[in-house]
Amino acid sequence: MFPLHREREQPIFSTRAHVFQIDPATKRNWIPASKHAVTVSFFYDGNRHAYRIISVGGTKAIINSTISPNMTFTKTSQKFGQWADSRANTVYGLGFATEQQLHQFAERFKEVKEATRMAREKSQDKMELSTAALSIAAPQDLSDELQSPPVMCVNGPEDKLFRSQSADITLSSEKERIKKMLSEGSICELNLEAELFTLQDSNSKLVAALHEANANVEQWKKQLAAYQEETDRLRDQVADLEAHGGQGPSDMLKDELTQSLEELENLLKAKDEEIRILQSKKSNFHELEQEREEAIHRLQELEMRNVDLERRVQNAEQNLASALEDRERAENEVQRVIQILDIKIFDLNDLRQSLVKLISK
């Protein structure tokens, strides 16, 4: 499938990012679609004048999203963005290594979206021109009869019904407000989960690098000890040669030993510098570990907040259910009063007819 498309499609932009998809069951949590950063590319199809975002992990397509004018790419944090694809019935999320990569992807998404909109408008203009040329017809007069339905008013129960409806509207608005607060908390939770996934990935890489660095440090320490022993031995040989006096071959050996000594000293300096760099990386690892713990703490706080919001939503739903019950009782009361009025009107009508008969007699 993909090779055929690649023959007629051309890549116009590529970057690397961690790919996530929204959980279809909860619509709240992110599911990692790739174990590591993968290539995400924009492709242009010249035959259909369409743009697609494609990312392939191994032999499986992780992202295959066709850009439409109504799509929007949203930056939810400094290194994370998302967009919804109604055709694929999912939401894609991308976690970038730097803020600059996120900005570049967002700008390219905006450009592609604008190009798609312009191409669609051009195709619609062509269709409208062809339709206007083929569909020329005489105007037709349309007449509509508007009839207003009869209104039955009962003063007492109608006030009850209006009060119940206003209470229903108030509770519905309160429920929508609480749901909006809950959705905002869910979005923050999704962003923190994505950042947590990115931090965990970076953490695992740094742990592996730290273990490797520690192993290299031990090996280098052994080499340094061997080099120091060799240096001491060479210095002793140089001191012995200087003590025995200088001859031609001894001077040459002295020069060679001095050169070897300088090389070993330079090598010791280089190894010391590498050890210093590894120690600085180890301090950066501790800082990342602290950031990860802070992200976990914020995630726990958001979960507690979501629990509180869910409790408030449940209370609002209970209040709404009770209000609906009151409304139903009021409607039943209105129906009962209407039936009583109908009976009274029927009795009055019988009485009127009886009176008419008596008067006629």
The unreliable regions are 1-7, 136-163
Q: What's the pLDDT, averaged over the residues?
A: 78
Number of strand elements: 8
Helix content: 55-70%
Radius of gyration: 40 Å
| Tally of helical runs | 4
Q: What gap, in angstroms, lies between the N and C termini?
A: 97 Å
Given the C-alpha coordinates, what overall shape results?
elongated
Percent in strands: 5-15%
Main sheet properties: 8 strands, antiparallel
N-to-C series of helices and strands: HEEEEEEEEHHH
Commentary on this structure:
The protein has 361 residues and is an alpha+beta fold. It has helices at residues 2-8, 99-134, 155-243, 248-360, and strands at residues 9-22, 30-32, 38-45, 50-57, 60-66, 74-75, 80-85, 90-95. Strands 1, 2, 3, 4, 5, 6, 7 and 8 form an eight-stranded antiparallel β-sheet that branches. A hairpin with a 4-residue loop joins β7 (80-85) and β8 (90-95). α3 (155-243) packs antiparallel against α4. It is elongated and about 165 Å long. Mean pLDDT is 78; it is low at 1-7 and 136-163. This is WH1 domain-containing protein. One of its GO terms (molecular function) is G protein-coupled glutamate receptor binding. Keywords: Coiled coil, Cytoplasm, Synapse. Belongs to the Homer family.
